[in-house]
Amino acid sequence: DVQLQASGGGEVQPGGSLRLSCEVSGLSFHYYAITWFRQAPGKEREGVACVAPSNVGAAYADSVKGRFTISRDNAKNTVYLQMNSLKREDTAVYYCNALLGLTSEYWGQGTLVTVSS
Hints:
Blueprint: E1 3-7, E2 10-12, E3 18-25, E4 33-39, E5 46-51, E6 58-60, E7 68-73, E8 78-83, E9 92-100, E10 104-107, E11 111-115
Parallel strand pairs: 2-11
Antiparallel strand pairs: 1-3, 3-8, 4-5, 4-9, 5-6, 7-8, 9-10, 9-11
């Protein structure tokens, strides 16, 4: 079975940092692009950051550029999202997604990030 296990969420004060992890099993990890999405209460799910299969590039939503960094360790089948300078508007449930082409897509369960003083 394919599993995407997200972890690392929690509560942090504005300006603080968290690192999320997404550990993937059951698929050929190095072929998949991995994306972190988030969904805040009452809002649609949005893409936050994406890393290419061979770690050759990454893309970020404008709202997180310069604050978040996505990386992957293909030896550990894990993707990380380092989140710095967190803002209240970053509060959301964060999900990881694995995508290969147009027909192979998997989602993990979410991890809650709360930014509050």
